[in-house]
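I trust your eye. Have a critical look at both lines of this record:
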Amino acid sequence: MTKKYLVLTTGGTIASAITEKGLAPSIPADEIASYFKPKADVSLSVEALMAKDSTNMQPEDWLEIARTITGYADQFDGFIVTHGTDTMAYTASALSYLLYGFDKPVVLTGSQVPLGMQYTDAETNLQDALIFVSETTLQGVFIVFNGLAMVGTRAVKTKTQSYDAFESINYPYVARIIHGKMNNLYQPVPETPVIMPQDLALDPNIFMLKAFPGMTVDIFDYLTEHTHGVIIESFGNGGLPFERRNLLPGIQKLTAAGIPVVITTQILEEGQDISLYEVGQRVVEAGGITAGDMNTEAIVAKLMWLLAYTNDIAEVTRLLQESMAHDMGFV
């Protein structure tokens, strides 16, 4: 039987051409689709959703992509989303939650060099994405880039120019595609399903703060008045300073105001063990919510998703620390 797949284009480098102000998306969707080489038993359709540099991608755009996919769920066997690389990991994470429990594969891909240009990686990435989406038995959201397939909540862009721009952090790659052939590398362990509301919604009113030596404590007054959730990229295993510029009362103030404070680490790999040091234990005592081995991109998307359904700190904490879409608990 013929399998049907829908390609959704959103812009990005892969669809860009040179303008007076630098590269900007302008290649039409049908031209992008012409670079795919589907097998005889594969049928491709294409739809242009938007034409954005992914720097301009916003939560409202994530919702549009998710709604389009769910709207076509009964008509296609899987989906490919072409996307700019700069925020692709955020979009992949957001779709992983917005489409939580989706029973078909959704693959994001893009390129470091636009289609039609010398040394472009776009054609290979497009074909690899098609091979993966049409041959995998996995469900959910993935990024396929430079011959590797990775879980959407675990992908991080680590290079600005090289072809191997994305890495799977704290989680194995699920497949490798070489010369048109796919090799499965890892079969994700099934998760216990978490029952979540099916309405597609996000609350983008969050703030992410990167700790640094000498950071003022005054920022917490603003955050208490203007945000619904805060993410702090801490040092090492989750510690924050409590001498001189003591940040812990700021966390306590936010928590007392009903604002969840998620603590992650600036270190890319191996997650955090927040109870290992006194500086981490004090953060937890102040109300900080540890995020284990989750990526910052996944935390941002998951917190927006959870806050759209509840503002109860205890419930946000419970759900954020529950593994969903393989986002935590591997390390």
Observations:
- Residues 3-184 form a domain with the Rossmann fold fold (CATH 3.40.50.1170).
- The chain has a mean pLDDT of 95.
- The CA atoms of residues 150 and 173 lie 5 Å apart.
- The chain has two domains: 3-184, 206-320.
